[in-house]
Structures are given as structure tokens and as C-alpha cells.
Amino acid sequence: MKRTAIIISLVALVVAAQFGSAQEPARVVEISAKRFEFNPKQVTLKRGEKVTIRLVSTDRAHGLLIKPLGVDLDADNGKPGEITITPDAAGTFPAICDHYCGSGHGNMKMTIIVE
Amino acid sequence: MKKEFDRRAFMRVSAMSIGAGALLQFSPLATTARGAAMSRLFRRQNGEGTGPFSIVQLSDTHVGFQGPPDPLGTKAFERAVDVVNALDPQPDLILFTGDLTHDSDDPAEHAKRFAAFRSISGRLRVKKRMHVPGEHDAALDGGVLFRENFGETHYSFDHRGVHFVALDNVSHGKPIVGAEQIAWLKQDLARFPKTAPIVVFTHRPLFDLKPEWEWFTADGDAVMNVLAPYESVSVLYGHIHRPHHTAIGKAQHHAARSLIFAFPDPSTPEKKPLPFDPDQPFKNLGIRTISGSSATRAFAASINDVELSIREVSGSEGVMQMLREGESL
Predict the structure, then answer these.
(1) 20 to 30 A Cα–Cα from B285, which one of A70, B143, B188, B203?
(2) Does ipTM exceed 0.90?
């Protein structure tokens, strides 16, 4: 009987931990995009930290592509895009605008660091 | 193993760099029963059977671009026109794989650049010229100016036993082909046996060459899945401003040189145009020619990338692809 109660308690603790984790609000990182730059140009994330990346455009359609992190966002003026991720590997990842926005488009990039 | 490959060959494709673009040569190997059957299939479908021919690929002319990587503007393009016009025999057709023009925020100025492109390309002796857009042509206006000048941004046609497919992976703004065009491709290919020779021409690579340099197509895998059942697929593309070849599955992917400036090898850390060299103004720029040798088996083609330089011929990539005849037609 006592053993059953212990098992039930452990299961309850595990469920509570998972439930609590799922409810934990993600940190929001806002990245602003305009022709032909992102602001900020570098963002640092923590491995295992849930984070919502929000892309906000102040002029026209832009993209934010960070392929190794599974980020492929689109935003237009007044229409932000966002995605919630939990990076599981440390590293330095280049991020680019992948929605062609003009002749300076090739220089529109930033860096995401996961530590 | 090689013997078996040769026995089943319907058409051979090879490529060599000549520096103003690319020349591809095709030659039918119609002396085999299967080669003859493929020829009959194409003749039945469009009244034109197989035959030897060559084509030229030109890419990334960027008419209207001005900047330090190429202070000569359209000179390399104009030189390429002269090189192609001097080819004997003349190629049957010319494929332009995008970034014909450099974009402008002013639509009227961009329209002038399209007109300037047509003025130069109009000097080519070859009148059958096919185009796909690059992002500099079509990403800002969704392809409006491109369509006004050249018609649809994706289409297909047959030429002497080869099925050509033009794919647009730029005019959505993002590097994608899109579900609608992929559905069209599936339908377009349905009438062919799995062994029909297929040449796809497009602007961006249809595989992840270097996504952080935007050298990829996001739904390229979906496109290649549609093409995967076909045994003889060559993909010709531009965008990366340098020759590159890779084989993925049964498909051969070939990038052509640019006619404006060159980008560095993708293994380098930074994507910066190679600096202009006034002593060798056309170094690393070029054309591709595709042509065929006489038939001994089914159909053969060779690809030559020609560097548009003072020495004119820079060598061969040694690329060779066997396009196979059908098991049943």
C-alpha cells in the first residue's frame, strides 16, 4: 500500500513537472527588419531555453531564415511573424532575410548565438 | 557495370566549361531498338523525333548592374554573344537561366533594363531563346515585367527527343517553386515514360548548396521527388555565379558561370564577389554549351563550360551523363 502511494506520488510529480514546463512562458525576442538590415544584429539564446522569436517588419515583406534552428519566418509591414523554439545545441548560426527585398538584400543578415 | 550502362543508353550528355556560359551537346543513339522506340515516342507526341543538336546556357547577365565587381557592365554579355555567334555549327537553342536584368526600385528603369537585355540578346544568330527569371528579374514585382517580355515564368517543350522544363523558383519573393507549380510539373511529366530524357532549367539550385548564402530552394526536395522516378534528369541553373556540378540520386545538377561577376567557392566564409581584374576582365565568367556526337548507340550529349576569357577555352569539367532509353514505351 505504502509502495503504491509512493509510485503515485512520483508519477504526480513527473506530470506536474512536465505540465509546469509546458506552461512556462517563453522568453520573447523581437527582431526588427527593414531594407536591408535586422535590428539587433546579434541575439544570444540559451540552450534548452524556450524562446519565441518574433519578426517585425517596418517597411515591406522580409524573411528570417535560420535553417539549423528550424526558423523560417515571414513578416510584412504590420504583419509580424513568430515561432517558438527550444534550441538544443550550442553554436553560432547565421540568419538571413530570404524574402528578396531589393538590391541590398544579399547583405541583410544577422547572427544567432546559442550558448 | 559500365557495359550494362552503355547497353541501355539512349542519350549521352556531357558538359565542358568554355567561359561565356555553357554549351550542351545531345546526340541520339538511335541505332538501338530502344533508342528508336524513344525517337518514335517523341515523333508521335509532337511530330519531332530525336536528332543530334546542341544548346547554349547563358546566365546572370544582370543588365543594369553597376559596381566595383564589374565596372564593364554588359561587356561580358556582349562578348558572349560574339562567342556564341561564332560557333559552327550554331546551337539549336539558347537557355537563359535567370537574373537577365538587375532590379531597380523604379519600374520604368527596370523596364529599360529588360529592353537593353533584349537588344543585346537580339544580336544572337540563334532565334530560339528560352528564359526563366531570377530574383533580380521577378521577385519585386512577382514576375510582371518578365511576363511582359518573355511570357510565362514556367513552361515546358520538347526538342528533338529531349523534354525541357522551365521552373520558376524566384517570383514568390522567397526561394520556392510553390505547390501549384509542383502539381503542374507532375501533370506535365505524366505523359512520359520514366526513361525519357529530361532537362530542367531554373535559376536557383534545387538542393541545399549553401542555404546561408541563399543558395537553395526551400521546396527543392519536393520538386526533385517528382523528378525522382525519371532516370535521365539534368538540372541546369545559375544564381551562384560559378560552375558547380553535383549528382543527387539519378539527377545531375549543373550551375553555369555568370556574365557579370563571380562569387567565391562556397567553402569560403564570406560571400563577396571576386574582385575585378583589369588584366583579365572576363576571368571566371562564361557560357555553357551542350552538344552531341554522332550516334553509335542511342543519344549522347556533352556539356562544355567555356570561360569567357582571352584564352577562350579553359577546360572540361569532365561531366558525362548517360540518358537511358525506356524499358517499355
Answers:
(1) B143
(2) no
